[in-house]
Specification:
Length: 390
């Protein structure tokens, strides 16, 4: 009797698992059906518009040697993510893709799993007479722009892979430009090895005096090495300067909050209304999330591609010490001569950094921002769970 009940219980559990799997397949099919049709998408980059470096090609060739049907494997690049479903361009086709079964087990020995992000080069299997590919492997990334998502047990979210330039967008004409936001973006860009460019939009909303004042504040913060471009989509100002930052074969990413004018700027660079734009709330000059997919578009003419992503309201800094050091290199260099190795550059005797400020070698604004970000990062690191390794 007990044996019959046990068998019946196993059958019930198996039916429940099969029902759950079937439900997931139906959900996935419904989600796929709701995605925009490929032939309705415009400005998608072609395979030749993208740059795969030699280490990535070598990794693809090495992976093909390990699979059963290497003739079905193709080198591809993820150019769009709609609700997590990748759109991949190969030398011969542009198609939707899904992850291989057991995808999460890849790179197990390395202790990490690389899920596809926009800009990722992948090994994709395309079986004969199939209109959907299967991503078998994400190839090593040249760079990866990441932000911390979550609190003490968060994770790194890759917003764009293999990116060369970060266009840090901030709007003018709504009070003082948020220098703290720009500083965070500079740190994140430097951490991944991408070149930052600050793009100030909506210049038509402020007069000459305000523009000069805000431009001076931004340039004091970013220093002489970072390019600052002033734009106005209404007046067509600065667009060629932005295009010049995205050379042929390169990939840039637009980074900014909702309402900063990212989509409007990109529409102007493309020359037509390609991305949806939304109204800005008058009470706080903030916008609603109008970019819902992560997309990559090709600029007309002899220029590269730009990746757009939903506006980010927060950019927490967790484990980005490398980016902080690169962004404020003069502070780090001077700190090597401080009397105390754990000097906070605020009150300690023998602080070489404060001496450099007094001598005019370090801008006090940059030191103030550096100290604020460094303090925040120390607190963030101390708040992480002990088993979290950055």
């Amino acid at each position: 009797m007990a044996k019959r009940a046990k068998t019946k219980g196993k059958r019930g559990a198996r039916r429940a698992q099969e029902g759950t799997a079937a439900s997931r397949r139906l959900d996935a099919a419904a989600a796929m059906a709701s995605l925009p049709k490929i032939d309705a998408l415009h400005d998608l980059p072609a395979f030749a518009d993208l740059c795969c470096d030699e280490p990535q090609r070598a990794a693809f060739d090495a992976f093909c040697l390990t699979v059963e049907n290497p003739d079905e494997m193709h080198l591809g690049c993820v150019i769009r993510l709609d609700r997590g479903f990748p759109l991949v361009v190969t030398e011969g086709a542009t198609l939707r893709a899904e992850h291989a079964v057991g995808f999460a087990k890849q790179d197990k020995d390395l202790g990490e799993v690389l899920y596809p992000a926009v800009g990722d080069w992948v090994a994709i299997r395309i079986a004969p007479e199939h209109d959907m590919g299967v991503i078998e492997r994400v190839l090593p990334r040249r760079t990866a722009f990441e932000r911390w998502r979550g609190k003490n047990r968060g994770e790194r979210q890759v917003l764009c892979a293999n990116v060369d330039t970060i266009l840090i967008v901030q709007a003018l004409g709504a009070g003082e430009v948020l220098l703290g936001r720009i500083a965070r973006s500079l740190v994140l860009a430097a951490d991944c090895g991408a070149e930052p460019v600050v793009v100030l939009t909506k210049a038509d909303r402020c007069d000459d005096e305000e523009l000069a004042r805000e431009l001076a504040r931004v340039r004091r913060l970013v220093g002489p090495e970072v390019r600052v471009v002033v734009t106005s989509s209404v007046a067509g100002l600065g667009l060629d300067e932005v295009r010049a930052c995205v050379g042929p074969g390169s990939c840039a990413m637009i980074l900014g909050e909702s309402g900063a004018g990212k989509s409007t700027l990109l529409n102007m660079l493309l020359g037509h209304e390609a991305l949806e734009t939304g109204a800005v709330r008058e009470r706080d000059d903030m916008g609603r999330h109008t970019t819902v997919a992560r997309v990559m578009v090709k600029l007309p003419g002899p220029y590269g591609v730009i990746a757009d992503a939903p506006g980010l309201r927060s950019l927490p800094l967790v484990g980005h010490e490398r980016g902080l050091a690169r962004t404020f290199s003069e502070v780090v260099e001077a700190s090597l001569s401080c009397r105390f190795s754990d000097c906070t550059h605020t009150h300690e005797p023998g602080c070489a950094v404060r001496e450099a400020v007094e001598a005019g070698d370090i801008d006090p604004m940059r030191l103030e921002v550096f100290n604020a970000l460094a303090s925040e990062m120390r607190v963030s690191a101390q708040s992480l769970d002990p088993d979290i390794h950055l």
